[in-house]
Amino acid sequence: MSLNHLDHASGRPRPARRSLRRYRAVGALAAAAFALAACGGGTDGGTDGGTDAGAGGGEDAAAGYPEQDITFVVPFSAGGPTDTVTRLIAEPMAAELGASIIVQNVEGAGGTIAAGQVAGAESDGYTVLMHHIGMSTAPALYADLPYEPLEDFKPIGLVTEVPMTIIARKDFEPSTFEELTDYLKANADDVTLANAGVGAASQLCGLLLQEALGVKLTEVPYKGTGPALTDLVGGQVDLMCDQTTNTTGQIKGDEVKAYAVTTPERVESLPDLPTTEEAGLPELQVGVWHGLYVPSETPDAVVEKLTAALQEALGDDNVVTQLGELGAAPSSQEDATPEALREQLASQTELWAPIIKDAGVTAQ
Q: In a 10 Å sphere around its CB, with 0-12 CB exposed, 13-18 middle and 19+ buried, how is residue 254 labelled?
């Protein structure tokens, strides 16, 4: 499938083309830069993990971990859904770890810039990546990806899986999802579809929508879902597929027109919103899972501490309540483990590769 692209005035960063060896060579500098970015906003908590006993000072160094601030790197803009999830778990993780967590947003290239920086950072547990489903689609989207998701990271655990919603500007003509599908088929050339850039969850959901309907819309990529949603509310673009963590407030506030949720069951926080299956498009089902990662040589003892802190955070009453209000739920204790996230990443990488190839979508 050939997609039209309309570049937004804000531009879209190109993917990094540096090798992983180069990233590792500058790992120390990247870690120092993350530490200096503390003013970028953070909360107490968080950290990193690994399995190689000889890496990052080994198990001896891990014994006192953490002894300094930890940086959680988010590949997307502040205020977006991944950022929201990260900041929500950062505070209870910080309390459990007894250290401050700095949340740093490193935008661009569908999350590959941030992931590349973390892959090349010191394997000491002080640089942690929060990423979503885009971790599994990057190998198919980027021919020159400077890291290997399954080899250059150690997973900490799954955090949550967030439903997607199909929304439009408030004055968009169709009133129901059925009317929307008919409208898109008849007026595809005139409809603009906002997303957070190639590889972002919003772009992947939009891709599945177009594939399911057999249409080609004009995509408008932004540097994050925050500005994309702002323009949708303002009427500058027509349509968007975004996570409930980013859209629930606007839907409840009647700032956008909502058509459906992309999960098998309705979302408790949006009970009147039908599922895509109920609305007649069962093939459009996608959830956005999130997970935490550290560089591949991080000691096992550090990974274990991070996993334990994550599991504690996911049981926090405020986290459970806030995620529920946003249409999501924390991962189970069984899923908030390195093994579960590793399995999820491997299976999703295998799942998305042929879908992306058949659609003919690649990052420029």
A: exposed
